[in-house]
Task: structure prediction
Amino acid sequence: MDKTKQAKTLDDVIPREDFQRLLTIIREVKFGTVTLVIQDGKVVQIDKLEKIRFK
Result:
């Protein structure tokens, strides 16, 4: 990757408000996946797939 395009801070990759939203999503998911979609070194989408497990 070209070093001139590398993110320098967290805010260059994902806005602080969206990062907080990501942390909330991670805490809430008991079983499943959280996927980040990245374009040009920036997070552009967060997908959450939650599974419900039966005993």
